[in-house]
What does this fold into?
Amino acid sequence: MSDQVSAGAVTREDRGDVAVLVIDHPPVNALSQAVRADLIRHVLELGADPAIACAVIAGRGRAFIAGADIREFGKPPFAPLTYEAAFIIEASHKPVVAAIHGVALGGGCEIALACHARVVTPDARLGLPEVTLGILPGGGGTFRLPRAIDPLVAIEMIGSGHHARADEALRLGLVDAIATGDVIEEAMAMARALVGQPLRRLSSAPAREIDDARARELVAAIEKKARGQMSPGEAARAVYDNLRAPLADAQAREREAASRLVYTEQAAALRHVFFAEREAARIPLIEGVAARKVETVGVAGCGTMGAGIAVALVDAGYAVIVVERDEQSAAAGAERIAALHDRAVASGRLDEETRRARMARMAFATDKAAFAPCDLVIEAVFDDLEVKQALFRDVSAIVRDDCILATNTSYLDPNAIASAARDPARVVGMHFFSPANIMRLLEVVHANRTSSDVLATAVAVGRKLGKLPILAGGCEGFIGNRILAAYRRQCEYMLEEGATPREVDEAMESLGLPMGPFAVADLSGLDIAWARRKRLAPTRDPRERYVAIPDTLCEMGRLGRKTNAGWYRYVDGRRADDPVVRDIIDAAAHAREFPRHRFSAAEIQLRIIAAMANEGARILDEGMALRASDIDLVYINGYGWPRWLGGPMFQADRIGLRAILDEARAMEARDGHGWTPSPLLVRMAERGETFGGARDGVRP
Ligand code: 3H9
It folds into this structure.
């Protein structure tokens, strides 16, 4: 018989002498203030209730508890806090057992660790992913987890944010049992069995012995891997430091770090990205539109990009037909694919048997007729309009009437490519980023006539490949490359005005980018952009400010790292300033008569963020991106921006759109054509609005 005692964020249901506390806070039982307060109230009440011998905590709906309510972060904390709820549960003299299904993450895992035992469903996941949000566990995780499991594993888990599946959690000792039947019933049985027994309170349990040298190495490795992100190193160190600390000190250390980190720029950026990723899944144009069934996919062209796309497809379970123009190119393509799989095998991501099974789903041909059975054909041939149009004309005549044609062009007008197909409504852009089997970004490009179910299919295929599809309009360069062009131009302008390539690179590296723009250009080679500039030269607007320095470098054969010289010279692979480049820049600057001055890193960063955000705002003005946060995701997932920087639009918000607008106006005054501030930027700055990365989370 059960007796429902109260309703709220947590419901108490008495089943005989066991109180079952069920958290009911959709969608994922985030540990909001109401949940924390209710949990404490119920535990205190049941402790005083003579009819109750023990308790179980469970969650209703999809999860046990998904963690603290991320929407509360960055705002003043509301008592009671998670650590207080955890201490009160742990202190209960009546056994409390967690019955976990779905996920127990962050504060949810900490509440579970405060219980005296844990029973999980076979599909449950547990973890402390706080570092991925720029913080560390603040509800006792830094000192309870290393007392539940091997402390070295605890350092690793907390420092990486790793989620453990039920079997792993059982093996580690993080949970006590995997339920074979109803998890609440089994947790109730375990709670009853604990009545009258000494209760395991992890916060006061002794920590296991640890190899100090290995622990310190592990903390250092976690710090290094985080590449500028603070939270993983801080979290790992806190776990290590807390191992031998008295509870009060451990508790104080955790609280200090948790409440400091939550107000950092990095944490604000990571929260922004968390919500941006969920928002990006909402594409109004295809809401409720069914995707077409796709089983067999053709890939036209098997160069670097085509091979990466083919591997991504076959790895995701599609049957793949690769067509190259001749036997020799097909053999070279097959070798590229084999090399990508070799790498996956060598790194342990793929075993030989799976590889063989995947390759059995891949066919190579030199005749486009092989595309006949395809549901989707993705072209990754040379980025030339005529080549792509000819291909779509031919393929249109071969494939079924419902087959989708996708172009992987990075710059060409998808409408012009679509016009060559028999049915332009079936043409869509799927712009992958190299290496296509690794990079998470997929720009799904909506040409003027693309039908909504074709768009929905491209998005669905992208998701099945494990990519993050971002909808983009069919403009020059789409979202990413269009902003990249504005970024690069602004960097080159600064050279003419007195900055050096190293100063620009170092300014962006100190902001957090792994590499500055000139170092990146040297790495990828200066010749591709040079060829493009030459191609576009006849149609270039003569009013545009044009920097000829990179052309001069290319004419001298300085094509970047591959020639050991570009923006820098390379000695044993290390970049060094080159007086030759300085002289070229000086000569170009002299000819242009721009006033020259020394640039500070802050000035360089402001100019670059303003150029990027202004272009981003124009993209939004023109409806080429759905939202500013999608632009941030493009930069994070396709252009190497670290998540903890939040992306260029987020950075613009943090600087303040007033300052960004002032800078955009200065660009227009100085650089003229092409730099008009976006009307959207003007409107938002004048109204004091932001793109969405509001200034929460940073203490004034
Ligand atoms: C923490 O706990 C700190 C502690 O140490 C205490 C310190 C004091 N809060 O992802 P989905 C929303 S840090 C608020 O699409 P799924 C999400 O925005 C926290 N909202 O579903 C979405 O809303 P909407 C540690 C949250 O099934 C909806 O729920 N915890 C939270 O693919 C569905 O989410 C984490 O880092 C939250 N905590 O995945 C876990 N979680 O529909 C973060 C979700 O309006 N969460 N929402 O867009 C996740 O990993 C996944 O959301 C989860 C579900 C696996 C739970």
Remarks:
- DSSP finds 28 helices and 22 strands in the chain.
